[in-house]
Amino acid sequence: MAYVGYAPEMLPSLNGAEVSQALSQRDIEFCCPSILDWHDYRNVDLVVGLRPAEGIRSTANWQATKPASKLVNAWHAGVPAILGDELAYREVLKSPLDYLAVAPRAEAVLHAVDRLSNDPGVYNAMVRNGRVRAQSFSNDRILGVWNDLLQTTASKAFSSWRASPIRQREILHDQLLGGHKAPWEWFDYQSAGENDPLRGAFSSLRTYQSDAFEDFEITIAS
Length: 222
Hints:
mainly alpha; three-stranded parallel beta sheet; 3 strands; 4% strand
């Protein structure tokens, strides 16, 4: 069983001695691979992906920006996944076989592990289902979605935005950021050294962000 991600973002109790002992009694090894091995599922039979219920790394703080990568990768690898109740996972959920959703507690994870260990039929059904679901996230399908977005939706929206008065464009820009500051707005110019490359880059963006919109063009490879 593996947590494929940054260890500090994992549910802390999964690293505890109690869980380690419980998994050992089930003859299951738990690991958190190095980022260099996140692509390698050859020795992985089950993926777990739960974050803390509270704190800065909790699901509530991260789910707005975290995609369903752990789940999609598990589908491609042919490995069932035990996951938390996150928005990204719910958005792609189509079947109870897509993944096992559990509460952010170690005992809930162990219960799900036992369910899969004691019922090979469910385990194999999840693997077969994952293979099918992975087809919707193939390289060709994703490329098609991006191509359609850039060639139609984004291109038309940009043309409409560019034809708008500059003040209206600035308002839309702020709305799209969702209250978050642009990089050149949060950068600490006073602390950065004179030779800091980001200082120069963000200074240019901050100075010319409005003027640059006048001449900005989108080029899409055919």
